[in-house]
Amino acid sequence: MDGYVLAQARSQCFYPRFERKPESPESTHYCPGCGHGILHKLIARVLDEFGVQDRTVFVSPVGCSVFAYYYFDLGHVQAAHGRASAVATAIKRTRPDSVVLCYQGDGDLAAIGTAEILHAANRGEPFTVFFVNNAIYGMTGGQAAPTTPLAAVSTTTPYGRSALNDGYPLKMAELLASLEAPVYVERVALGNGKQITAAWRAIRTAIDVQRRGLGFSFIEVLSPCPTVWKLTPVEAQKRVRDELTKVFPLGVKCDRRRQTVPRSQPPAALPADQVEVLLRGAEAEGEWPHPLACQPVDVRLKIAGFGGQGIQLLGEVIAQAGMYAGLHVSWLPSYGPEMRSGTSNASVRLSTNEVDSPVVSRPTHLIALNEPSLRKFLASVEPGGMVFYNNESFPTDCVRSDLELVAVPFTQQADRLGDPRVANMVALGAWLERVPCLPDGALELALKAHVKSESLIALNREAIQQGRLLCAQRRYRT
Ligand SMILES: Cc1ncc(C[n+]2csc(CCOP(=O)(O)OP(=O)(O)O)c2C)c(N)n1
Ligand code: SF4
After folding, report:
1. Which 8-state DSSP code applies to residue 224?
2. Burial 9-30 (b: 16+ CB within 10 A, else e)
3. Cα(146) to centroid(ligand 1), Å
4. What band does 286 get if pLDDT is binned at 50, 70 and 90?
5. Which-ligand-closest: CA of 137?
6. Do 432 and 328 share a domain, yes or no?
7. Are residues 84 and 177 in the same domain?
8. Would you say the C-alpha torsion 92, 95, 97, 101 has a positive or negative sign?
9. DSSP symbols for 113-171
10. Is the link from the previous residue into 289 a cis peptide, with omega within 30 of 0?
11. Which of 119, 139, 310, 452 is most enclosed, with most CB atoms within 10 A?
């Protein structure tokens, strides 16, 4: 290819063998002359230089680069079509120390994913986006992209793109640079050696912006797609140089590095030293590990009822307490569109091992706060599991002999305490009485993280205690 020599040893950021096609472990699935391969090398080279391989997470899109995880030896998440910048947002927010690289094609980013990228940029999410603009949908065989030039023929614009019918080519770099939050936006090209060297510099700058905690950086890369363009690799590079750069002018579109101060890390829900002290205190008092919880923890809990019963709060409190106790946790809410009275359920996992999926389809424990939820989820409970039901007893036609069934009127007890809203905490107490997998210190911290007023915290504590007592007294087994 024209003037392009990247004379260097293989990057450490690439796997020694590419298992995508085991019969040819040296080659990628990209077509000869494709810009994706060149860009991969440039990114890998910068990561090598910055020494950030171990903390880099690569978010790949749906498009020709969907298989990037076969090549880069980095953390990986493969996002649904168009959603890479939303996924990158979540990763960066949960792991602010990581270097998050979001890699998207023009169909992915500028068509189905327009909303995600626009809002991520507008929020100034502090990750780096590589936008591969090859002016076409490569993977699906040549449909027009939002970036297809006017008059260009594609399978969906057989007579050439017309502004009246199809709109104008979207200039994403300029669009995002017009927002206030992005720190660095540049458009580069892979049309010859000189352009490729400039692209490498831009990539370096963009990743450095992230490394320094400055904010959002975005590099648009005009990239050859010889196969769909039906050109040779050399002709495709020429088209990038002569044609695409006229539609999409190269250069820095915004550079706010000087006026931007590094972001501070987001505050933890509770300061880490407080968490330490409380958990150590719990240990010292001999309450952790609880004698019943000496075995490895693997709880798959489903909490179900109607909106307004505090189902999601309960799920969050349990998951957060588990987190403070050093367990692996997940909390997955599911509810209807109504604020109140619709169905609501939460899936919570607590485990001494890593959680593979937040979905709980076979719960080990079910807390059912109303009868429809009991009827809906009873059959799904794992044999040998436990069910906690908000009533004096179970409906006679809704029982199972292979489960432990515990009926406690949570709401009635909450009413006695003067606030029906704490029925969820009564349920928590009942559950903890039988499943003592959380130390009191961790629970207390989680309560404080979610309930703001002291008087409400005290009421919640009392409700938990009442739930424990009631459960200790009433135990039913079919
Ligand atoms: C929800 C959804 N809609 C459509 C598709 C089909 N699809 C796969 S890749 C793609 C476009 C890819 O083009 P681009 O993002 O430009 O990447 P390239 O392949 O050119 O690198 C589409 C529409 C899909 N996989 N998922
Ligand atoms: S179709 Fe185009 S974008 Fe996809 S791998 Fe081939 S050259 Fe690259």
Report:
1. -
2. eebebbbeebeeeeeeeeebbb
3. 12
4. low
5. 1
6. yes
7. yes
8. negative
9. THHHHHHHHHHT-SSEEEEEE-SS-TTTT-PPPTTPPTT--BTTBTT---HHHH-PPP-
10. yes
11. 310
Those residues whose C-beta lies under 8 Å from the C-beta of residue 193, and which sit 6 or more positions away, are: 2, 3, 4, 5
CATH code for position 114: 3.40.50.970
Between CA 12 and CA 27 the distance in angstroms is 16
Are 325 and 227 part of one and the same domain?
A: no
How big, in percent rounded to 5, are the helix, strand and coil portions of the chain?
40, 15, 40
59 touches 84 (CB < 8 A): yes
Q: Which two tokens stand for residue 138?
A: 């490569």
For residue 4, what pLDDT is reported? 44
Closest Cα to atom 4 of ligand 1: 81
DSSP 380: G
Are residues 439 and 293 in contact, defined by beta-carbon separation less than 8 angstroms?
no
457 plus 363 within the same structural domain: yes
Q: Are residues 239 and 324 in the same domain?
A: no
Contact 182, 216 (CB under 8 A): yes
Say how many Å lie between the CA of residue 120 and the centre of ligand 1.
20
To the nearest whole number, what is the mean pLDDT of the chain?
Answer: 91
Q: Mark whether 168 and 236 lie in a shared domain.
A: yes
Closest C-alpha to 193, from 249, 234, 133, 134: 234
Q: How does residue 282 score in pLDDT terms, banded at 50, 70 and 90? A: low
Does the Cβ of 104 fall within 6 Å of ligand 2?
A: no
Task: Print the domain residue range for 413.
Answer: 286-477
Residues 6 or more apart from 317 whose CB is under 8 A from it?
Answer: 428, 443, 446, 447, 450
pLDDT at 5 over 50: no
Residues contacting residue 257 through CB under 8 Å, at least 6 positions apart: 183, 184, 209, 214
Among protein residues, the one with the nearest Cα to ligand 2's atom 5 is 30
Between CA 314 and CA 292 the distance in angstroms is 22
d(CA 243, CA 229): 13
83/228 same-domain check: yes
For 203-220, what is each residue's pLDDT tens digit? 999 999 999 999 999 999
Distance of CA 401 to the CA centre of its chain: 40
Count of structural domains, the chain: 2
pLDDT tens digits along 398-444: 999 999 999 999 999 999 999 999 999 999 999 999 998 898 888 99
Residue 138 CB–ligand 2 contact under 6 Å: yes
The dihedral through the CA atoms of 438, 441, 444, 446 has a sign that is negative
**Which residues make Cβ contacts (< 8 Å) with residue 101, sequence separation at least 6?**
43, 56, 57, 58, 59, 74, 88, 127, 128, 129, 130, 207
Length of the chain: 478
Contact yes or no for 93/266 (Cβ under 8 A): yes
